[in-house]
Amino acid sequence: MLETIKNEFQNLESSITTDNMPRIDNQAPLALFYKKEIDGKILYTNVQEGKIHYFISENVDILHQNNSFELMYVLSGMAINKIEDKEYFYQTGQGCLFNRQIAHGEIIKNGQVLFLNFSQKFLEDLLSPLKESNAVQGQIFQFLLNDLEGKENWKRSYIEFSPSAPLNDKIFHRLLDAIQLELATPKIGAEYFQKGLILRILTELENPNSFQAKPVNIDLSKEEYLVSRLISLIEAHYGDITRKKIEKLLHYNSEYLNRLLKKHCNMTIINYAKAVRIKRAKQLLCKTDLTVAEIADSLGFSSENYFYHYFKNETQLSPKQYRTKKVQEN
Q1: Which residues are bridge partners to 31 per DSSP?
Q2: 129: CB partners within 8 A, 6+ apart
Q3: Which residues contact 59 (CB under 8 A, 6 or more apart)?
Q4: Are 143 and 97 in contact (CB under 8 A)?
Q5: pLDDT tens-digit profile of 35-49?
Q6: How far apart are CA 172 and CA 118, in angstroms?
Q7: Cα(231)–Cα(67) distance, rounded to whole angstroms?
Q8: First vs last Cα of the chain: how many Å apart?
Q9: Which residues is 15 bridged to in the sheet?
C-alpha cells in the first residue's frame, strides 16, 4: 500500500523516504490535496504548480510525517485522524494544522478532506517580514513562527480548530477556492497571489467569530486526553450532543467521562454543554443577522419557544433583548 502511494507521489515529483517513520517530501513550495472517500477507497487529487493529478488508493491511515507544514480541513463527512498513539475525530468544518514533527494518518468517512502543504521556505518568506506586526500575534501565527524558530515546547503540539457557529463560512470557502484556482492556472504574479491568500486563510482561522482554535499537546496523560476529546466533541456539536453519542464516539462510559470532566473542569457534561450552547447563541445573536428562529434551528433546539425559555433562564434576557442590549453597547 505504501509503495503504491510512493509511486504515485513520485509522479508528482515528490518522494517518500522510509526509515523509522515514512516521511512525505513534496518538492513544491505550496500544494493542495483533496482526499475523497468513494466506495471504501480514496480518490486523491493534487493541485500544484499549474498541474492537476489524481489517483485512487485504499482508505488506510498510514502514519507519516511531512517535510512541509500541513493544514487539514474537513469539507464534508468525517475524518478519523490517528496522531501517533491516539485518535481524534474531525467533522465538517473542523480541521488541524501540523508542524513537521507530528506523525499522523487519516481515515476519511463518507466525505472529503482538503490538505494544504506549505514548505518551510514558503512560510519563512511569508511570515518573516511580519514578525513584529500585530497581524501575526494570534496563536496560529505564533505556532508557525515558534516552530520555524525551533522552539522546543511547540514540537509536540499541533493546532485544531472548529467553526464558532454552525454556519457555512463563505469567506473561508471562497479563499480555498481561490487558492485552488491560483495553483491550477499558472500566470504572472501567481506567487504573490498565493502568499496573500495563505495569509488571509490563516487570518480567517484566527478570527474568533469564524473559528475556535486551540493548541493540542500530544503527550497528554490518558485522563487529560479524554477530557480534551470530550470538550472538543461537545464544542464541535455546539453543546447539542447526548451522553449516548459521546459514549459511542469515545468508547468510554459516560459516567466515567462525567467524573473526569468534573475533576478537571469542575463542570458536568450537561453543564458544560449548556454553557457552550449559550455561548454560541450569544455569538450568533451579536455577530449575525439570523432571526431567533434560525438561530434556534441551527443550534438544534426543537422550537423557537424552547430556545427562548432556555436562553432567558440562563441570561435573564430574551434573545431579542440580549441582541438589542449588545447593539446599544457597541
Answers
A1: 117
A2: none
A3: 37, 40, 41, 42, 107, 108
A4: yes
A5: 999 888 899 999 998
A6: 18
A7: 31
A8: 57
A9: 25
